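Reading group handout, session on sequence-to-structure problems. Before we discuss, look at one worked example. The prompt was deliberately terse, the way you'd type it at a terminal:

> structure Aminoglycoside N(3)-acetyltransferase

The input record follows.
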Amino acid sequence: MAEAEQIARGVTPITVDSLTRDLLSLGIQPRDVLLVHTSLSSLGWVNGGPLAVIEALLRAVGPEGTIVMPAQSANLSDPANWGAPPVPASWHQTIRETMPAYDPGTTPTRDMGRVAELFRTWPGALRSDHPSASFAALGPLAGQVVGRHELADPLGEGSPLGVLYRLEAKLLLIGVDFDRCTALHLAERRVWPDRPRIAEGAPLMRDGQRQWVTFDIPKVMDSDAFLPIGASALRSGLATAGALGEGRGILIGMQPIVDHAVEFWTSGR
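And the output record:
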Protein backbone atom coordinates (compact mmCIF):
# COMPACT_ATOMS: atom_id res chain seq x y z
CA MET A 1 0.00 0.00 0.00
CA ALA A 2 1.32 3.44 -0.94
CA GLU A 3 2.20 5.79 1.89
CA ALA A 4 -0.39 8.33 0.72
CA GLU A 5 -3.11 5.69 1.01
CA GLN A 6 -2.00 4.80 4.53
CA ILE A 7 -2.20 8.45 5.57
CA ALA A 8 -5.59 8.89 3.92
CA ARG A 9 -7.17 5.91 5.65
CA GLY A 10 -5.56 6.55 9.05
CA VAL A 11 -7.24 8.17 12.02
CA THR A 12 -4.00 8.88 13.89
CA PRO A 13 -0.32 8.05 13.46
CA ILE A 14 0.80 4.66 14.78
CA THR A 15 3.64 5.22 17.26
CA VAL A 16 6.07 3.19 19.34
CA ASP A 17 3.91 3.85 22.40
CA SER A 18 0.64 2.81 20.73
CA LEU A 19 2.18 -0.31 19.23
CA THR A 20 3.67 -1.29 22.59
CA ARG A 21 0.24 -0.97 24.22
CA ASP A 22 -1.33 -3.10 21.48
CA LEU A 23 1.35 -5.78 21.84
CA LEU A 24 0.87 -5.97 25.59
CA SER A 25 -2.92 -6.09 25.20
CA LEU A 26 -2.52 -8.99 22.77
CA GLY A 27 -0.75 -10.98 25.48
CA ILE A 28 2.98 -10.41 25.00
CA GLN A 29 4.78 -10.31 28.33
CA PRO A 30 8.19 -9.28 29.62
CA ARG A 31 10.82 -12.04 29.23
CA ASP A 32 8.95 -13.67 26.34
CA VAL A 33 10.89 -15.40 23.59
CA LEU A 34 9.04 -14.23 20.50
CA LEU A 35 9.24 -15.41 16.88
CA VAL A 36 7.85 -12.58 14.75
CA HIS A 37 6.57 -12.40 11.16
CA THR A 38 5.58 -8.93 9.98
CA SER A 39 3.79 -6.91 7.36
CA LEU A 40 4.66 -3.29 8.01
CA SER A 41 1.99 -1.96 5.64
CA SER A 42 -0.77 -3.73 7.61
CA LEU A 43 -0.20 -1.45 10.60
CA GLY A 44 -1.14 1.81 8.91
CA TRP A 45 1.10 4.85 8.84
CA VAL A 46 3.81 4.10 11.43
CA ASN A 47 5.82 7.05 12.69
CA GLY A 48 9.32 5.67 12.32
CA GLY A 49 8.43 2.77 10.06
CA PRO A 50 10.28 -0.50 10.75
CA LEU A 51 12.41 1.18 13.41
CA ALA A 52 9.31 1.93 15.48
CA VAL A 53 8.01 -1.65 15.13
CA ILE A 54 11.26 -3.13 16.41
CA GLU A 55 11.47 -0.66 19.29
CA ALA A 56 7.89 -1.52 20.31
CA LEU A 57 8.67 -5.25 20.23
CA LEU A 58 11.76 -4.73 22.37
CA ARG A 59 9.80 -2.65 24.86
CA ALA A 60 7.08 -5.28 25.10
CA VAL A 61 9.42 -8.18 25.93
CA GLY A 62 11.79 -6.04 27.98
CA PRO A 63 15.55 -6.45 28.43
CA GLU A 64 15.17 -10.09 29.51
CA GLY A 65 13.10 -11.03 26.46
CA THR A 66 14.37 -12.32 23.13
CA ILE A 67 13.07 -11.41 19.67
CA VAL A 68 13.58 -13.71 16.67
CA MET A 69 12.74 -13.10 13.00
CA PRO A 70 13.29 -15.08 9.80
CA ALA A 71 16.22 -13.64 7.85
CA GLN A 72 15.98 -15.87 4.81
CA SER A 73 17.92 -15.21 1.64
CA ALA A 74 16.42 -17.74 -0.74
CA ASN A 75 18.57 -16.52 -3.62
CA LEU A 76 21.64 -18.07 -1.96
CA SER A 77 20.76 -21.49 -3.31
CA ASP A 78 21.30 -23.66 -6.35
CA PRO A 79 19.92 -21.80 -9.40
CA ALA A 80 18.80 -25.16 -10.82
CA ASN A 81 16.03 -25.06 -8.20
CA TRP A 82 14.88 -21.47 -8.82
CA GLY A 83 11.33 -21.03 -10.01
CA ALA A 84 10.29 -17.53 -8.99
CA PRO A 85 11.66 -16.62 -11.44
CA PRO A 86 13.74 -19.36 -13.08
CA VAL A 87 16.93 -18.55 -14.96
CA PRO A 88 18.25 -20.20 -18.14
CA ALA A 89 20.10 -23.48 -17.57
CA SER A 90 23.06 -22.01 -19.44
CA TRP A 91 23.47 -19.50 -16.58
CA HIS A 92 23.57 -22.04 -13.73
CA GLN A 93 27.30 -22.74 -13.59
CA THR A 94 28.25 -19.07 -13.92
CA ILE A 95 25.91 -18.22 -11.04
CA ARG A 96 27.39 -20.99 -8.88
CA GLU A 97 30.92 -19.80 -9.59
CA THR A 98 30.33 -16.08 -8.99
CA MET A 99 27.60 -15.79 -6.34
CA PRO A 100 29.02 -13.91 -3.29
CA ALA A 101 29.51 -16.14 -0.26
CA TYR A 102 26.99 -16.05 2.57
CA ASP A 103 27.95 -13.59 5.28
CA PRO A 104 25.60 -13.29 8.28
CA GLY A 105 26.53 -9.63 8.64
CA THR A 106 26.10 -8.43 5.06
CA THR A 107 23.95 -10.86 3.08
CA PRO A 108 20.54 -9.17 2.70
CA THR A 109 17.25 -10.91 3.30
CA ARG A 110 14.98 -11.64 0.32
CA ASP A 111 11.21 -11.08 0.40
CA MET A 112 11.20 -10.85 4.21
CA GLY A 113 9.99 -7.27 4.43
CA ARG A 114 11.46 -4.04 5.75
CA VAL A 115 11.16 -4.93 9.44
CA ALA A 116 13.07 -8.21 9.14
CA GLU A 117 15.73 -6.61 6.95
CA LEU A 118 16.35 -3.86 9.52
CA PHE A 119 16.22 -6.30 12.42
CA ARG A 120 19.06 -8.46 11.09
CA THR A 121 21.33 -5.36 11.22
CA TRP A 122 20.20 -4.23 14.69
CA PRO A 123 23.08 -3.67 17.14
CA GLY A 124 23.66 -6.89 19.04
CA ALA A 125 21.54 -9.07 16.75
CA LEU A 126 22.92 -12.50 15.88
CA ARG A 127 22.18 -14.47 12.74
CA SER A 128 22.34 -18.20 12.11
CA ASP A 129 24.71 -19.74 9.58
CA HIS A 130 22.27 -21.24 7.09
CA PRO A 131 22.78 -19.46 3.73
CA SER A 132 19.16 -19.49 2.56
CA ALA A 133 17.02 -20.11 5.67
CA SER A 134 18.69 -18.13 8.44
CA PHE A 135 17.07 -16.55 11.48
CA ALA A 136 18.13 -13.40 13.35
CA ALA A 137 17.77 -13.04 17.11
CA LEU A 138 18.30 -10.33 19.71
CA GLY A 139 18.25 -10.76 23.47
CA PRO A 140 19.73 -12.92 26.23
CA LEU A 141 18.84 -16.20 24.48
CA ALA A 142 19.86 -15.11 20.98
CA GLY A 143 23.03 -17.19 20.93
CA GLN A 144 21.15 -20.27 22.05
CA VAL A 145 18.50 -19.78 19.37
CA VAL A 146 20.77 -19.21 16.36
CA GLY A 147 23.99 -20.90 17.45
CA ARG A 148 23.29 -24.13 15.56
CA HIS A 149 21.65 -24.42 12.15
CA GLU A 150 22.23 -27.61 10.21
CA LEU A 151 22.60 -27.18 6.45
CA ALA A 152 20.54 -30.29 5.74
CA ASP A 153 17.83 -29.47 8.29
CA PRO A 154 16.94 -25.81 7.66
CA LEU A 155 13.49 -25.88 9.29
CA GLY A 156 13.58 -28.95 11.51
CA GLU A 157 14.89 -30.04 14.89
CA GLY A 158 18.44 -29.00 13.97
CA SER A 159 17.35 -25.43 13.23
CA PRO A 160 16.42 -22.40 15.36
CA LEU A 161 12.80 -23.59 15.09
CA GLY A 162 13.67 -26.68 17.11
CA VAL A 163 15.32 -24.52 19.76
CA LEU A 164 12.36 -22.13 19.89
CA TYR A 165 9.98 -25.05 20.41
CA ARG A 166 12.05 -26.32 23.33
CA LEU A 167 12.23 -22.81 24.81
CA GLU A 168 8.40 -22.55 24.73
CA ALA A 169 8.59 -19.44 22.58
CA LYS A 170 5.56 -17.54 21.39
CA LEU A 171 4.71 -16.84 17.77
CA LEU A 172 3.50 -13.39 16.67
CA LEU A 173 1.99 -12.75 13.24
CA ILE A 174 1.73 -9.03 12.48
CA GLY A 175 -0.69 -8.44 9.61
CA VAL A 176 0.03 -11.84 8.02
CA ASP A 177 -1.73 -15.20 8.11
CA PHE A 178 -0.48 -18.68 8.97
CA ASP A 179 0.84 -19.24 5.44
CA ARG A 180 3.76 -17.08 6.63
CA CYS A 181 4.24 -19.18 9.78
CA THR A 182 7.64 -20.88 9.46
CA ALA A 183 7.04 -22.75 12.73
CA LEU A 184 4.65 -25.07 10.92
CA HIS A 185 7.52 -26.43 8.84
CA LEU A 186 8.77 -27.97 12.09
CA ALA A 187 5.45 -29.78 12.45
CA GLU A 188 5.70 -30.87 8.84
CA ARG A 189 9.12 -32.42 9.51
CA ARG A 190 7.71 -34.32 12.49
CA VAL A 191 4.77 -35.75 10.60
CA TRP A 192 6.70 -36.58 7.42
CA PRO A 193 10.34 -37.18 8.46
CA ASP A 194 11.10 -39.13 5.27
CA ARG A 195 10.01 -36.55 2.72
CA PRO A 196 11.97 -36.65 -0.58
CA ARG A 197 15.16 -34.61 -0.48
CA ILE A 198 16.38 -32.01 -2.96
CA ALA A 199 19.97 -31.48 -4.04
CA GLU A 200 20.94 -27.98 -2.93
CA GLY A 201 24.03 -25.82 -2.74
CA ALA A 202 25.32 -22.41 -1.70
CA PRO A 203 28.55 -20.37 -1.56
CA LEU A 204 30.07 -20.55 1.92
CA MET A 205 33.35 -19.54 3.50
CA ARG A 206 35.44 -22.58 4.44
CA ASP A 207 38.93 -22.12 5.93
CA GLY A 208 38.99 -18.55 4.69
CA GLN A 209 38.09 -19.51 1.14
CA ARG A 210 34.83 -19.22 -0.78
CA GLN A 211 33.52 -22.65 -1.73
CA TRP A 212 30.37 -23.91 -3.42
CA VAL A 213 29.04 -26.41 -0.88
CA THR A 214 26.45 -29.04 -1.81
CA PHE A 215 23.95 -30.66 0.54
CA ASP A 216 20.44 -32.13 0.49
CA ILE A 217 17.36 -30.61 2.12
CA PRO A 218 13.84 -32.01 2.61
CA LYS A 219 11.18 -30.95 0.16
CA VAL A 220 8.58 -28.73 1.88
CA MET A 221 4.89 -28.40 1.22
CA ASP A 222 3.25 -25.27 -0.13
CA SER A 223 2.58 -22.95 2.80
CA ASP A 224 -1.06 -22.50 1.72
CA ALA A 225 -1.56 -25.85 3.49
CA PHE A 226 -0.91 -24.02 6.77
CA LEU A 227 -4.02 -21.84 6.49
CA PRO A 228 -6.55 -24.47 7.66
CA ILE A 229 -4.36 -25.18 10.69
CA GLY A 230 -4.30 -21.52 11.63
CA ALA A 231 -8.05 -21.19 11.19
CA SER A 232 -8.55 -24.24 13.41
CA ALA A 233 -6.24 -22.81 16.08
CA LEU A 234 -8.19 -19.54 16.11
CA ARG A 235 -11.56 -21.33 16.31
CA SER A 236 -10.39 -23.51 19.18
CA GLY A 237 -8.97 -20.59 21.17
CA LEU A 238 -5.36 -21.77 20.95
CA ALA A 239 -4.50 -18.53 19.16
CA THR A 240 -5.49 -15.01 20.13
CA ALA A 241 -6.22 -12.29 17.57
CA GLY A 242 -6.37 -8.59 18.34
CA ALA A 243 -5.78 -5.11 17.02
CA LEU A 244 -2.26 -4.02 16.13
CA GLY A 245 -2.21 -0.49 14.82
CA GLU A 246 -4.84 -0.47 12.08
CA GLY A 247 -4.32 -4.15 11.37
CA ARG A 248 -4.47 -7.46 13.20
CA GLY A 249 -2.00 -9.46 15.23
CA ILE A 250 -2.17 -13.16 16.06
CA LEU A 251 -0.37 -14.61 19.10
CA ILE A 252 0.06 -18.29 19.92
CA GLY A 253 2.54 -20.47 21.76
CA MET A 254 5.09 -22.25 19.59
CA GLN A 255 4.48 -25.61 21.22
CA PRO A 256 0.66 -25.41 20.96
CA ILE A 257 0.64 -24.51 17.24
CA VAL A 258 3.23 -27.14 16.30
CA ASP A 259 1.48 -29.84 18.35
CA HIS A 260 -1.88 -28.79 16.92
CA ALA A 261 -0.54 -29.08 13.38
CA VAL A 262 0.89 -32.54 14.07
CA GLU A 263 -2.46 -33.69 15.42
CA PHE A 264 -4.32 -32.02 12.57
CA TRP A 265 -2.28 -33.79 9.91
CA THR A 266 -1.99 -37.18 11.59
CA SER A 267 -5.74 -37.30 12.16
CA GLY A 268 -6.26 -36.95 8.42
CA ARG A 269 -7.98 -33.57 8.52
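Points for discussion. First: The two ends are 36 Å apart (CA to CA). Second: The chain is about 35% helix and 20% strand.
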